[in-house]
Amino acid sequence: MSWYHTRVSKNEAAEIPIANTESVFGDSGTACFISSIKFQEVGATKESTLNLNPIIDTQFIENIRTNLNLKNKNTKHIKHVYGVPKFWPYLNELKSFRTNKSFDRFKQIQNLSMEPQYKKTLTKYAEFADLDTYFFTDEDILLSFLEFESCDTYYQFHYLKREKDNYNLVLFLITLGILPTANYENHYFTVYKRKANDLKPAIITYKFGYRRLISWLLLPTFNLFNEVENYNKDYRFVDHTKDQFISALENKHSQPLPIKHLNPVYGDVTGGMYLSDSELFKTQIPVDTRFAVIRDGKKNVSFYDPIHGLYKIQAVNVNEKINSDIITNGLEKTLKTFITTNLLDKVKKNYPKSTILHEIYTPEYRDGTYTFILEIAKPEPENDLFKKEYFVFSCFKSQSQIYILSRSLANDTSLDTLQKLAELNILDFYSQVTFQSKYIEPKPLDLDIAMNDGNKKSDTDEVDDDGEEDEEEEELVGSGGGVGGVTGTIDLGGLLSVLKERTYIPKTKLDIKPGRFQFNNSRFHTPKMNSSKFHIKPARTKNFSNPGKWRK
Length: 552
Description:
Elements: E1 2-10, E2 31-38, H1 58-70, E3 75-84, H2 91-95, H3 104-110, H4 116-128, E4 133-137, E5 153-167, H5 169-174, E6 181-195, E7 202-214, H6 237-250, E8 268-270, E9 273-275, E10 281-284, E11 293-296, E12 300-305, E13 309-317, H7 320-329, H8 331-350, E14 355-362, E15 369-379, E16 386-398, E17 401-409, H9 418-430, E18 433-435, H10 447-451, H11 465-478, H12 493-500
Parallel strand pairs: 2-3, 2-5, 3-4
Antiparallel strand pairs: 1-7, 5-6, 6-7, 8-9, 9-10, 10-18, 11-12, 12-13, 13-17, 14-15, 15-16, 16-17
């Protein structure tokens, strides 16, 4: 027997049910959400990503802002970076990043004469900082309690603590389960809320927990009164309480959320982070996990929710030909040719009117980054008109991989502001991803394959293990399985799936609730069979019934 337990209290008053509390965001004016982030230089000990803490991260605040913006409420995300050394030599350059994001700021960093670690630190915060980012030294930390620009109400979120215990466990074991044992777990979240020019905040504490009673005497209930799910490392109970917390903030009368398992096939999800199976990258999940769909391969991943749209990361191993082209033609031309051949030409097979807009090459960022906007013209089924959708792509080479980041853009964006919006959005995406490239010894180009258009016949019917793996990987790529591991191949599965899907968003209801969106995610990913590194791979037994493939 088990049940959930949720309560809320204000200013240390008595706990009451969440449905009986007042709305947190009921105040008029601009709501400002403050993230406090410790300044860290690149290469410093215990360096971590730019997050509040492992539970409340920047994406948590962005999800709340999205819901409030849909209700026509003005919001701002104030990123308060504290702890900058007083005599740090490039503090003024840090503060100069309080502008709209663009690739021009990396050109400014490259033109400065400084030690490499300082350039890396400036680059790190240039990806992250925007108009609402403030840098404070150790001495002016008290300035963070002063007023920021155009804010009427301030909010800060904190994960407070966890409580976990059990009762009567010894007697439960001695009596072989006759006498019951009880266990519980509670997670506490706090909201600090204050009006402008008011230094005393209101403190609202939320408690989310469960109670579980275990005994052999409860067997006749046939598990009918067992409300609490069995959680695992892919979806921990603390992750569920985080989802419940944001739901309670958005809608005080919301029903308990259904359990949402992202279930990546290859990579791993812990909290709000995704780690690639190839360990070539890890990223903060850039969408709302309550409504998200994930589709991943060994070297790529796609995230999608109906409001934030599509985000995709892919790592492509380079071959000897790409390395040779870089030496002969330079990195810029090689990247453009690579994108045209492997991306644009393939998209045009399905959408011939598609084209590249506003391309830009930035040699100062990541040793050469090619960024462009892809305009995809989808024909309307009932007339001769075309519906245009926009995606921003950015790629760069690091050691033996070409990384490609992409995300969808709002279709109602005007062409005058499209380029600025694309640069801002892709740099936001860059700031959430950590790349861990590897060097792979390139294989020489096989002249027989090159002359026969990639079809090389074997002199024997025997196939070794490596050959079976290569054939299996090629089949997965050809079927849109999302492996993305074949050298020099770009996976378009996530992009084409989103273009073909039909997502229904009601126009009369502006708040986000579970089940509000009708989205078919069956083609987006397959269920994860287990949580270990060894998965049942598609096509593993495809040659089982062919006697010619059997070994003697």
